[in-house]
Amino acid sequence: RQLVAEFQNLEQDDAILAEYVWIDGSMENVRSKTRTLRSSKPITDASTLPEWNFDGSSTGQAPGHDSEVILKPVTVFKDPFRRGNNILVLCECYTPQGEALPTNTRAHAKEVFDKVADHKPWYGLEQEYTLF
């Protein structure tokens, strides 16, 4: 516990840990990987972040012979688990040719919502629990 606290309290200067997060090919599991970015100010706009990639054959999102998947940042949140200006970056997954992967249901939803934007559509999520 003390060792973890020592590392959490290290000075980061202008280093920001950006945890890129996406849903994998099972549509049930969340994957992530971290990169270090340099910024003297907090990062709040996903459009300023670089795209990244990963091997989609290891996550069930691409065949082994053509496995590159592109992570496109969509939104940014302050990382609640790390101190400093570190962030969580929620991402969509695309092919290198720019096509949304079949598991990227957000891209399709955005397309539909954009078509009816004048009606100001919205939706909510509901979670139900049973306690025994």
UniProtKB/TrEMBL annotation:
GO terms for cellular component: cytoplasm. It is an enzyme of class 6 (ligase). Residues 16-98 form the GS beta-grasp domain. Pfam families: Gln-synt_N. Its EC number is 6.3.1.2. The keyword Ligase applies. InterPro entries: Gln_synt_N (IPR008147), Gln_synt_N_sf (IPR036651), Gln_synth_N_conserv_site (IPR027302), Glutamine_Synthetase (IPR050292). Keywords: ATP-binding, Ligase, Nucleotide-binding. Residues 33-65 are annotated as: Disordered. The keyword Ion transport does not apply. GO terms for molecular function: ATP binding; glutamine synthetase activity. Coiled coil: none annotated. GO terms for biological process: glutamine biosynthetic process. Belongs to the glutamine synthetase family. This is glutamine synthetase. It comes from Palpitomonas bilix.
